[in-house]
Amino acid sequence: MVEFLRDVHSRPGGTGAVLNLIHGSKLRWSSDLSALTALVSDPRRKLDLARHSFDEARHSYLLLERMAALGFKPFRLPSHLDRLERLLVRSRARDVKQVYAEGASVGDAELMELVAAALILEEDALLKLQAHCEVLSHDPTTRAILCGMSADETRHVAYLGAWLDGFATRFSPRAVAAARERLTETFRAVDDAYCGALAEYFDRAAQAA
Question: What pTM was computed for the model?
Answer without folding.
Answer: 0.94
